[in-house]
Each structure stands twice: as structure tokens, then as C-alpha cells.
Amino acid sequence: MTTVKEAEKMISQQAKDYGTEDIYFEDALGRVLAQDLLADRDLPPYNRVTMDGIAINFNAFENGIRTFSIVATQAAGDVPLEINSPAECIEIMTGAAMPSTTDTVIRYEDLTITNGTATINTETLIKGQCVHYRGKDKQKHEVVVAAGQLINPAVVNMAAAVGQHRLTVKKLPKVVIISSGDELVEVTDTPTPFQIRRSNNYNIRAALKNYCINAHMLHIPDNADIIKKQIENCLQQYDVLILSGGISMGKFDYIPQALEDCHVEKLFHKVQQRPGKPFWFGKHHKGPVVFALPGNPVSTFMCLRRYFIPWLEKCLGIQQPKAYAILDKDFSFNPPLQYFLQVKLQINEEARLVASPVEGNGSGDFANLLDADAFMELPLERNNFTKGEIYEVWKFGAV
Fold first, then answer.
1. Residue 166: what are its φ and ψ, rounded to 5°?
2. Residues 84 and 102 sit within 8 Å (Cβ to Cβ)
3. Are residues 280 and 383 in the same domain?
4. Are residues 97 and 26 both part of a single domain?
5. CA 234 to chain centre
6. Distances (CA, A) of 231 to 11, 170, 289, 296
7. Which end of the chain is more exposed for a tag (fewer CB within 10 A), N or C?
8. pTM here?
9. 389 within some domain
């Protein structure tokens, strides 16, 4: 049986770059930038005033002048005005360009203004105060956002500032989510006493939306011929097939045979873990990869989080740091399987991440997922785990 580390390695080896595409910058939130963004001019592009007040030449203050005649008022966006004598000043607004004949701004809070005359009420001035100098942040042609970053609101802001209305981003793989089973009905249907509503496919689709992937969904019945035909069609249309259910040892679990008949190479089937032991993974010679996840909801979700999401992030070049937490109570697990313990995370008074076990009723107890927010990966070689020990955790949340 394949170990967790072996499965992780084989899946990681199938990661690939799906290329790039250009999209409108306002539609790029959550995508991965595939180009360096360069400053098209110095940032800021001029000596920028950062407080409302008056602009003076500091030499006048050093020479004892405290009262200045206001010769003009300048707003942001105005052509800079100038003074002609040391005792003059410009009343100036935040964001305005600093006049070349001035070098220091005194804020309104430190002034008294009467009849066009400004009097300075403080003796603690610094030459150049309240001025954000040209090019202080970035120089023209300098990289302002490096390729490979996840586009967040700050990146969108910078793209707008440097005039990049089109951004080159990593292209997303085309994904289809395939659920199977005659016992499953649509969300809007009323199930019989022995049916259940489909939910795993919506869970998977919601998780993929965190990565801006709008996956298609398909449901197939427990019919070997239909399953094979639908998988054949999907292999021609999609880069990734994510299947949920139908991969164990049951009489109606036709999917492994259908994948083989469709010439999908099995890289492994069954992983030495709980939940998610029946997990199947393979690749087609024309490129598509297949993640066939166990049908139990907790198993589906765990395998998605532990295997598919890291694979996807590697394809997109997203670098995520590993997360570790402290187990806050003793825990035992006896079967010879690597266990993914559902836990609730919190930060303690020492600013350390602590994991509290959330024990449910097996891999079918998806309601229990609502009380947890991560899986803690417990090592295969151990059966007893002690309060205070530190293990890796896989958080449920997005990028």
C-alpha cells in the first residue's frame, strides 16, 4: 500500500505549468501574476505634500521668520506655484506637488492663519517634513510587483497606479468534478428514506473557487458503460478530473476499471491513511490527471486538502509555508495507518498555534467538519500522541 509521503511525491511529479493568459486587471484578484510589474515613472512622480498646511523655505524659519504671507493656494493636481521672497508661503493641500522654491510643509495644526497671514506656533520643525520625495518608493522601470505573487487588493492597486490595465497571469487548469452513485440526488430534490443529496461535488467546487477555478460538475449513475463513456469524454475536454466515490471494493464501484479501460495509467490506488484509504490517482498519456477520491465526505475533503490543493499550488507557483500546531491533549490511534486528526485551532497566550482534537463518528460524519478547521497529520510510526507535541496541520481555509 502506498504511504502518504509516496503518494505526495507521485502527485507532485505530475504538476505542470498550464501557460499564461492576459486578463483585465480588475478581474485578476486571486490569480497568480506571471509578469513583473514595472514602474512607468518614479513613485511618487513628484515631491508630494503629505499634510494640509503651508509650504515655506526652511531657511526663512532658520533665520527667525515665524509669520508668512500667503501668496496663493495650491490643490492636488495643480501646477506648482512659487514664492518670491523668504517671508512668503503657499497654502497647500495633501497630494499637491511641492513648489521648487519651498522645501518644508507646516501642518494647519501648528499654525494660526488670519487675514492671509500664517503664523507658526511651534519651534520643532524639521527641514523637508511632510514631503514624500520623488522616487522615494520606486524608480522608473524598477520592479514594483514581482512575478509569482498571488494578486491581492494591494497588487490591483499597484497595477492601476502604474497603468497596467492588462495583466499576464498563470492559466488555470480546466477541471471537472464527477460524482457517482444511484443513491445521490440533486440538492433541490427530496430524497427517499434511502437516498442522500449530493454534497461532495459542491464542497470540492467551493474549495476550487478559492483559486478562481470555476469547475464544471457532472453526475454519473452506477452503470459501467455510462461511466466509461463519460470519463472518455471528460479526458478529451479537461485537464483535471476529480471523481468522488465509486473507487473502493464494492460490487458497483466501476470507476477504477473504467479508468483503466480509458487508458488512464494508475500511479497508485489505496494510501496507508485514515480517512481516505481508497484514494486513486493516475494520469492519461495525453496529459489529463485524475484524482479519484473516496466518497465519504470527510475522506473526500481530506484528500482534496492534503493532495489536490498542494498539487494545484505547485502548478500555479504558489509558495505556501508549512503550518505546525501543538497538540493540546493526549490522543491514541491504533490501526497501522497515518491518521489525519480533525482539530480546532486557536492561538494561546504565548502566541503559539494550539490544536484541540475534534472526534467525530468516522469519515461519513461531515457535520463534524463544521467544528474543526484543520487536519493534524499524525506520523504512521506512532500510536500514542502526547499533549505538547508538535505536528503539521493542514488548514481548511484558502490561500
1. -120, 130
2. no
3. no
4. no
5. 28
6. 20, 27, 12, 21
7. N
8. 0.88
9. yes
